[in-house]
Design goal:
elongated; six-stranded mixed sheet; about 400 residues; alpha+beta
Length: about 400
């Protein structure tokens, strides 16, 4: 039976980034850039003022005070028409171009008009002698025309979208967003809106996995529920194999109705591994369907909801990261002190729902009392998984263990 690390490496070996495609700027947030982007402009395109005030010659204020003739007022979007010379100044607004001859800007708070505001003919300035360049942002200090401003492989956040707009890009080449189909299986399942009858339960895995896929930055397709028959599974699985990734919940253990692996084999999906040495989630199944655009990945997750979520976080989320061009998207691992004594029993490494907190620069982990892999309610209080190696052992309070942070989006 494979270890978690061995299984993850086999998953990632088949998860290659999707093909690049053009995307409109307004739809690109959260995607990964597939090209280098070069600026077509200098930014700023001219020396500009970063405050409202007066553009002056610093030498005229060497004594800290002067009365100057006001030549004109220049606002953002306008262009100066006169050069600043000895004894003169230009009233200037934030973002406006610096007039020729000026080498500093004095803030409006340090000035007093000596003539009516409508004429702007004379101004008195009293301030600390300005340095050359004071309150001026020089041309091209942010970006130079021809400079690579965004490199392929970066994730496009709101900031990067702003930069793309600044350099005139209305569309950009990105790694395609992977599409994942989610199929819940089981004769016992009914949709969330139905009242379960004797022997039935509501389908919680479908909505859980759809939301987890979308939180990981991929597109989710909910295939609903397939019954535990060859015909129902074949139809639904064949539909799901049209996506980049198919996630199947249930039907992969060793029961008489665990038919998923045989149906997958019939449809051409090659098994890579079945069963992983972990708790919960041992029955995990993984396979690939060869396709011209890249292998389609198939995950058969255990039907119990906590097992499904743990397997999603350990294996499916990293695969989504690789398919999306992000690289390693595994859960963040931290060292944490047990906030309480804990007794572990079991022959497999266990990923226990837990509460991770920080106090006085220390990470504290508190394993939650859960009732097994069917206890989804306890996960509501969890923000981490506490990792315990295989073997029976009593852990004292304060001992360091490994913890995995669950994404805040849950």
């Amino acid at each position: 039976m494979l270890s978690v690390d061995e299984a993850l490496q086999q998953v990632l070996a088949h998860a290659r980034p999707r093909l690049a495609a053009k995307c409109a700027l307004g739809l690109a947030r959260g995607l990964v850039l597939a090209e280098d982007v070069v600026s077509d402009i200098d930014s700023p395109p001219h020396d500009k003022s970063v405050v409202d005030g007066y553009a002056v010659r610093a030498a005229d204020l060497a004594d800290g005070s002067a009365e100057l003739d006001v030549l004109e007022e220049v606002t953002a979007g306008a262009v100066p028409s006169q050069d600043v010379t000895h004894g003169s100044a230009t009233r200037i607004m934030t973002g406006a171009p610096i007039p020729a001859g000026a080498d500093a800007v004095v803030m409006i708070e340090h000035t007093r008009p000596l003539t009516p505001a409508a004429t702007h003919e004379r101004v008195q300035i009293s301030c600390k002698p300005p340095a050359v360049g004071q309150n001026i942002m020089r041309r091209a200090i942010s970006m130079v025309r021809g400079q690579t401003v965004l490199a392929a492989g970066c994730e496009l956040r709101a900031i990067e979208l702003g930069v793309l707009a600044e350099v005139g890009r209305t569309s950009v080449s990105v790694v395609g967003r992977p599409r994942l189909a989610i199929l819940a299986t089981g004769n016992e399942l009914v949709p969330a809106g139905e009242v379960p009858q004797a022997g039935q339960i509501r389908n919680s895995n479908g909505p859980l996995l759809v939301a987890a896929v979308e939180a990981a930055g991929a597109t989710a397709l909910d295939l609903g529920i397939a019954r535990d028959t060859i015909e129902s599974l074949r139809e639904s699985i064949a539909n799901g194999l049209q996506s980049d990734v198919l996630i199947i919940s249930g039907g992969v253990s060793a029961g008489v109705l665990d038919l998923v692996p045989s149906v997958l084999t019939e449809l051409g999906v090659r098994q890579v591994f079945h069963k992983v040495n972990l708790k919960p989630g041992k029955p995990l199944w993984f396979g690939v369907l060869s396709a011209a655009a890249g292998d389609k990945l198939v995950f058969g997750l255990p039907g119990n909801p906590v097992s499904s979520l743990v397997c999603f976080e350990l294996f499916v989320r990293p695969a989504i990261g690789r398919l999306s061009g992000r690289g390693d998207a595994s859960l963040v691992q931290v060292a944490a002190e047990l906030a309480m004594p804990y007794v572990h029993r079991g022959d497999r490494p266990t990923y226990q729902p837990a509460r991770l907190e920080s106090a006085d620069g220390r990470n504290l982990i508190r394993p939650l009392r859960w009732q097994g892999s069917g206890d989804l309610r306890t996960l509501v209080d969890a923000n981490a998984l506490a990792c315990f190696p295989a073997g029976d052992r009593e852990y004292p309070s304060g001992e360091l263990i490994v913890a995995l942070r669950l994404p805040g989006s849950y």
